[in-house]
Amino acid sequence: MSSIWTALGQRPSATRQADFAASPNYADGAFQSPLPIAQPNPISILPRWFSDRSPNREPSAPIPTEARSAADYTEPFEGVRATWLGHSTVLLELDGHRFLIDPVFGHASPTPLFGVPRFFPSPLALDDLPPLDAVLLSHDHYDHLEASTMQALAHRVTRFITPLGMGDHLRYWGVPADRITERDWWQTTTVGGIALTATPARHFSGRNVVGRNSTQWAGWSLHGPQHRMYYSGDSGWMPQQFGEIGERVGPFDLTLMQIGAYDELWADLHMFPEEAVRAHEAVRGDVLLPIHWGTFNLAFHGWTDPIDRLLAAAPSGMTVATPRPGQFVTLGQPVPTESWWRGMDS
After folding, report:
1. 264-293 b/e with 16+ CB inside 10 Å = b?
2. Tens-digit pLDDT profile for residues 295-318
């Protein structure tokens, strides 16, 4: 288990920061959002966090999951298949390759002692992961990047693909430098026949109050020989940029869209569910798989509000997958649409 100090990670060195100056997204010693963002002071949120007793912030019964093991992934899958493991952690199979996206198998905080635990264990255990082509990361917040998970994967996975600057965290946690690939927005790297392109997002980075925005954040497009997939990462609404993503690297057979942990206090940083529907349309997505909900208590809304609001906002004819954690979403087959969370309000 990582100590609190280890979990904080490692900021980029002065030499590395000097290298970032070549990026059009880096200025005044920090990475920049494409649109202005209002960030509330974390200290100002704490009183509300402990005093707010909004109902239904956590499930009242065990969340139903579908257990997975490496035996479910013995052969490469030549189409598109996604296994949502909770929050933004997804095992994605695309044209014969496997990617693990933003893996967090434990808690969304520096320590479990004062942390944010999962509502349910991952339906696929960390120790039972199948062989992976790469781990794909969007940014360095605790609900997307967990030190203990990275330490466990450091010598099991040959490629870690990240936005600029995140390699310092990974090297600090034991990932060999030659396994790390960092990309700026609109830059591409390849894994086998899959092109992975970092895309803009409206967010921020940082694992403590010091050194905010010293690493980049991003969404990702994955373009295979037969199929395309888009992952939003964490982002506020940005109409021009989502449209540009759709034009430059879309359309997409599948989109993974962040829909939870929103609030008016940080409306620039996380999309509201209705905005996720618009983003899916803007990037020209076909099947929408909502993520970033149903796993951690990270906001003041009810834990089922994100998915209920998204389904209410989705127009007739839009295909929205609502799998139980661990349930396959396989393109070319009917996607799961069960409202499995109904009746679990606290």
Report:
1. ebbebbbbbbbbbbebbbbbbbbbbbbbbb
2. 999 999 999 999 999 999 999 999
The answer to whether 88 touches 258, Cβ cutoff 8 Å, is yes
Q: Are 326 and 124 in contact (CB under 8 A)?
A: yes
pTM over 0.70? The answer is yes
Q: Bridge partners of 222?
A: 196, 229
Q: At what angle do helices 273-282 and 239-249 cross, to 10 degrees?
A: 40
**Percentage helix, strand, coil for the chain under 3-state DSSP, each rounded to 5:** 25, 20, 55
Structure tokens at 185: 């927005």
- Element of type H or E holding 149: helix 147-153
Predicted confidence (pLDDT) per residue in 86-118, tens digit:
999 999 999 999 999 999 999 998 877 777 899
CA dist 343 and 346 (Å) reads: 9
Cβ-contact 289, 230 below 8 angstroms? no
- For 109-120, b/e burial (b = at least 16 CB within 10 A) is bbeeeeeeebbb
Distance in angstroms (rounded) separating the CA atoms of residues 286 and 308: 20
User: Residue 67 CA to chain centroid, in angstroms?
Assistant: 21
Note if the bond before 47 is cis, omega within 30 degrees: no
Strand, helix or coil at 221? strand
What are the start-end ranges of the E strands in the chain? 26-27, 30-31, 80-86, 89-94, 97-101, 134-136, 160-163, 180-183, 188-191, 194-199, 219-223, 228-231, 252-258, 285-291, 319-320, 328-330
Residue 163 β-bridge partners: 183
User: Contact 212/200 with Cβ under 8 angstroms?
Assistant: no
Does 341 score more than 50 pLDDT? yes
Token reading at 264: 């008016």
Q: How far apart are CA 130 and CA 76, in angstroms?
A: 10
